[in-house]
Amino acid sequence: MGQVYWSWQADVKPGQLAEFRALVERWNAIADDDPNTLFNAWEISEDRCSVQVNQRFVSAEAALAQFESNGCWVELDNFLNPTAMYVCGDYGSTLDFLREHGATFMKSLR
């Protein structure tokens, strides 16, 4: 299988930005230590109300493993209201469970 990448967006809950930033620090440390995470970047909107994380993994299996190895996923709902997720690459059926959470699976136009 080939690489998988996603973009996940959310709105920051009122009064939760400082606590969320602390979570991002822990998140980034975990992602930085994972050899199967090729890219990891959190970004925030200019008005500081919306965030997104863009990640790229060596495979769909490596992306799936993030939900277990990066415990920060379970804390996101404390600080954020999810708005969108786009999954791209060679995802196969490994990440199908994300469909139940509103993920949109994208295919290349090439």
Structure description:
With 110 residues, the protein is an alpha+beta fold. It has three helices and five strands. The chain has helices spanning 17-33, 60-69, 76-79, and strands spanning 4-12, 37-44, 50-57, 80-89, 104-105.
**In order across it, which strands form the biggest sheet?**
2-3-1-4-5
What would the principal axes of the Cα set say about the shape?
A: globular
Distance between the termini: 18 Å
Q: Give the count of helical stretches.
A: 3
Largest sheet: 5 strands, mixed
Helix content: 25-40%
What is the helix/strand order?
Answer: EHEEHHEE
Structural class determined from secondary elements: alpha+beta
Number of beta strands: 5
- Mean pLDDT across the residues is 96
Rg over C-alpha atoms, rounded to the nearest angstrom = 14 Å
Beta percentage is 25-35%
Concise summary:
With 110 residues, this protein is an alpha+beta fold. Helix content is 28%, strand content 34%.
